[in-house]
Amino acid sequence: MNTGELSSCPPCSIGQLRQDDDISQIKRTSASSRSRAALLSSVGGILCLCLFTLLASAGVMISGENRSDEPISPIPLEVPLDQAKVKLGRSLFADSRLSAGNGVSCASCHLFERGLTDGLPISRGLPGSPGGTNTLTLFNVGLNAKLGWDGHFLSLQDQAKAVVQDKHRMGAKWDDVVPLLRNDIALTATFNQIYKDGIQRDNVIDALAEFEKSLDTPNAPFDRYLRGDDNAISEEAKSGYQLFKNYGCVSCHQGVNVGGNMLQVFGIFGTPEAASQGPKTPGAAQGSGIDDDRPVFRVPSLRNVAQTAPYFHDGSVATLTEAIGVMAKYQLGRSISDEDVAKIEVFLKSLSGEYQGVPVGNL
Question: Smaller CB count within 10 Å for the chain: N or C?
Answer without folding.
Answer: N
